[in-house]
Amino acid sequence: MTFPAQRSSRAPKAVNTASRANIKTTLLGLFLAAMPSSVFAQQIPLQSEPPKQLQPEQVAQEVRDYRMNNEDRIMRELTEFLSIPNIASDTVNIQKNAQHLVAMLEARGIETHLLPIAGRGPVVFGKLTTLNARRTVIFYAHYDGQPVDPAAWTDGKPFEPALRSAPLEAGGQRIPFPANSPEHPAIYNDDWRLYARSSSDDKSPIVALLAALDALRAKNIPLAVNLKLILEGEEEDGSPNLERILLLHRNLLDADVLLTGDGPVHQSGRPLVFFGNRGILGFQITTYGAIRALHSGHYGNWAPNPAFALARLLASMKSEDGKVLIDGFHDDIDPLSATAQAALAAMPDNDAELERELQFAKPEGGGRRLVELLQFPSLNIRGLRSAYVGEQSQNVIPEKAVAAMDVRLVKGEEPDEKFEQVVNHIRKQGFYVTANEPTKEERLAHPQIARVAKDPFNYPASRTSMELPVSQALIKVVQAATGNQTVVAPTLGGSVPMYIFEKLHLPWIGVPIVNYDNHQHSSDENLRLGHLWRGMEIYGAILADLNW
User: Fold this and answer.
1) pTM of the model
2) C-alpha span between 112 and 114 (Å, rounded)
3) Helices H / strands E in the chain, number of each
4) What is the CATH number of domain 280-333+376-454?
5) CA nearest 239: which of 496, 512, 502?
6) Residue 44 has pLDDT above 70, yes or no
7) Which of 172, 242, 269, 512 has the most C-beta neighbours closer than 10 Å?
8) For residue 132, with 0-12 CB atoms within 10 Å meaning exposed, 13-18 middle and 19 or more buried, which class applies?
9) 231: which strand partners?
10) For 401-454, how does the pLDDT look when each residue is reduced to its tens digit (9 = 90+)?
11) Helix (H) or strand (E) holding 479
């Protein structure tokens, strides 16, 4: 990735007291006016005219006008952020991400604090006070990403952002980043794709929010709310420390609503507002044969094959049409409200189009729509392993077989109870169940053994009432900003640790912005640039007009 050279400067350090906020803003504006910057917020001159009071659709247009003149600056900030490796367990680099975020926030005059976690990326907390604002909004996102296998990426370099003319599936070709100059500003096509880890999950929503803030300031549009940010560095690792850290700093969480930018838009491509997310339970099942792999010719038809045993066990868990057959699996579901049911019925039906795009002939679910099935818990095999395949395949009877599993939980279900349902089912299939590697004595005593190990960090689903005044106000603002094209959903299929904020009695709502076909959690993760631009407009309208 090559950009034209440009000078840089250090952003001023944020002042940490609310009483000096006005002085700080003035000094920051004068400083930025005098010093150019390569990455962070645009140099915005101090405004002399009175602030504009605009409707959401007008705010969206103003943000669009700003963006069209600053696409290079926005893309530069995003690509530099994406270039920092961000696996949660990579202590050095994940902490570099946090420090980079501090610079990004402080460049906008946002009071910033790091809430440390030993050996991990800290929670980055930001605060921006708005004069006379009655409401406070927290924005949550995460800056860590899923682990990567560079060999599985088309370009082989997940942390070197690559620009393509279209999705890889549509034959998109790698193209250079446009040159930028005062005479010929860089122009980015809406359909271009930016490929990099966390390009969609979850760094781009952070950049979109900050760029929206830049746009409002440049256009002299005041914020309607106080803004706080909670940016986490462990979400893809199960958020093991988030609840503890937030409880230690509970005084920072005084707010009226929390918005999260995590997740994709609706599969129709339309914008999305959602009010719930599923929880997550992960576990691993291992079945065992002989103590070592055996020659399939010498021992076939005699030595037990753990891969077949695992296959039979997994097949017992779901019917051909995808119904989970584990006893009690659907017993604890909290029903949707009448408002949520009406929203569900009004959601677009694009299942047939999705089937064609994803190239399979028949979905699971017994004829129910995808959006309906997301309201139920799901059981998934996320990985299988036994001996070798492909060029490494060997004529052996494996010594063990492993399945990595996940259950997406819905409101009303608890991870521990769901895990016990799974374990009980495995026992009913005739397996001796252990949480540890089986001993010699256990191997000799039990013909079928399954080790079932639960992931260390699991959490329940969460849901916010769609009837709340803030819920209705947010829907109204986003619909106005998007020309009434927004899909309103009771629940998103994915998992985000919003249960923590529900326990703190803080309502939360999801406002994702990235394309649904972004390869989230997989290789070749990507962002459609038009979704980033529209996300800026939506976030700008929320910051300028959310009120209830």
Assistant:
1) 0.85
2) 7
3) 16, 21
4) 3.30.70.360
5) 496
6) no
7) 512
8) exposed
9) 124, 141
10) 999 999 999 999 999 999 999 999 999 999 999 999 999 999 999 999 999 999
11) helix 469-481
